[in-house]
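This part of the workshop introduces the protein records we will be handling. As an example, a complete record with its sequence and its structure tokens follows.
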Amino acid sequence: MPHEGDSIDPVEKTSKSGIVSTECPGNRAYNALLDATYIRILAPQRMGDLNSLKSSAPCLKTERQAIERLDQDIKRADKLGAAHDITIDPLTVEPKGTRELLPPFTIADSNATVNGETIPEGTTYIKVNHFDHYSQAMQIGDRLMAQNASGTSKIDETNSIILDLRDNRGGSIPGLQRMASLLVGDSNIQSIGKMSAENLLQKEDSEIQAYPMNKPYDGVVEKLKDKNIIVLTGPETAGGAESLADALREKRQAKILGTQTYGLGSFYVSERMGYASITYPAGKMFGASGRWLGEGIVPDIQVDNSQNGQNRDIQLKAAIDILKK
């Protein structure tokens, strides 16, 4: 038994619940995050693994050390047979790489120049960079329905649509649903994909359906049924953009041109757990075709822009050449 005045090293005072010490405040954060992670994500029956991780953690002085330690431990979770692909701290999960923030969408009319290529007569070019809010699809619908001096709308003068999703990594699910409603069809008859449960949060599989648009936009959907649609894709096309491309091919007989998409076949959930944000895959995404999107979408017409030696958009030119035939 220690005598009065003896010092006890708090680092040595450990148990299956982990280090208990005022000198190791980071361990409290570590234990709380670990508990939350196991309860929400990992198999709760593996409590032995949880206690082992707690007891083996060193003295953590700060919350940052706790987050870094937990990140390391979660990356070893596969060895425990528990889970994988979990990110600690970042608020979002995106494919690798960084890029500048692009505008939500751009539209180019016939005879406009895009990337050095002239959009042919009767063709409308639409580039959707991400699905960011509810009104995005309505703004595009307004542009397509806008009337000129003769009283004819853009959609009436359009024979073909080039939909550019090459820089689209997904985004807002409601934004995707409304875009699908505008371009694919009504939610009562059109499914643009399926989310398959993989963990405790998602109890059942669920359909990803187009979101009903207001009546004024019904005309766009009907008139698009008779249009030629080419969807441009590439390695940056991911998540919801892959769902939309797949749905347009299945439901609107659109042709996909470009290179294979990224293959972001999981949907993610981010939760703030007091000390950090934990982002993890909550399930798998399947397209309207029934295929798992994690393998990427292979275009109907494969054209590689990387062979471009003249700073020209070979994929866009290929789409234009097809529409001119």
